[in-house]
Amino acid sequence: MAMSERLDSTFAALADPTRRAILARLASGEASVLELSEPFAMTQPAISKHLKVLERAGLISRGRDAQRRPCRIEARPLAEANDWLESYRRLWQSNFRKLDAVLQELKSSPAKRAASKRKRR
Amino acid sequence: MAMSERLDSTFAALADPTRRAILARLASGEASVLELSEPFAMTQPAISKHLKVLERAGLISRGRDAQRRPCRIEARPLAEANDWLESYRRLWQSNFRKLDAVLQELKSSPAKRAASKRKRR
What is the pLDDT of residues A69-107, one digit of tens each? Predict the structure, then answer.
């Protein structure tokens, strides 16, 4: 898969609250489908569908143990999605800087600024 | 919209190469639908559909000028998606550390290690 297609399937897989919750659970260690389906109050087939989407996107891998087939989170697609978003960091950081400037301006109201000028003299 | 729903619509909007390319273009400044449709060799209605998805996700806003309605990128949903991914950073960073350790181990092959031991004596 080319990078652009990988980003398509990573972002599509992340666009669902259950799949994000599954990844959050797997971030603390491997789990079987049975173990995953318990906290989510979902049937195993419903969880299996979500796992297939995550597996196709490369966000999880499955163990070889035929009975249990434990799921493991795979960090690489998350790192690639993060890299893509990082290239926009300057946009939100410049917004934060503008907000900071406004807040500073509000804190040092004309009265305060005049007072601080008098002190400095 | 709750945070989880915002992440759903942000990630879904980002799961398309044209929409990511539109955001990349808008990161360097506002553009009208006409200006956006030119580099993409797409019709204006096709671009408009993508813009509606981006606008619903809050990733762009449209200007008030009735004729031109320039599109502007909005950084906040990108920052929120980035925050979500950042919580998994330790996963890929620990993978990188493991890889580094393996590379270091390969560099200092047994022969080299023996030589460096002899030098140190």
Answer: 899 999 999 999 999 999 999 888 877 777 778 888 888
Mutation for A interface: B91, B97, B98, most A CBs within 10 A: B91
> What is the pTM (predicted TM-score) of this model?
0.81
Q: What is the ipTM of this complex?
A: 0.80
Q: A118 in contact with B at a CB cutoff of 8 Å? A: no
Hey, how many other C-beta atoms are within 10 angstroms of the C-beta on B104? 9
Where b means 16+ CB within 10 Å and e means fewer, B81-101 reads: bbebbeebeebbeeeeeeeee
Contact B82 A78 (CB under 8 A): no
Report helix angle B17-26 to B3-14, nearest 10: 100
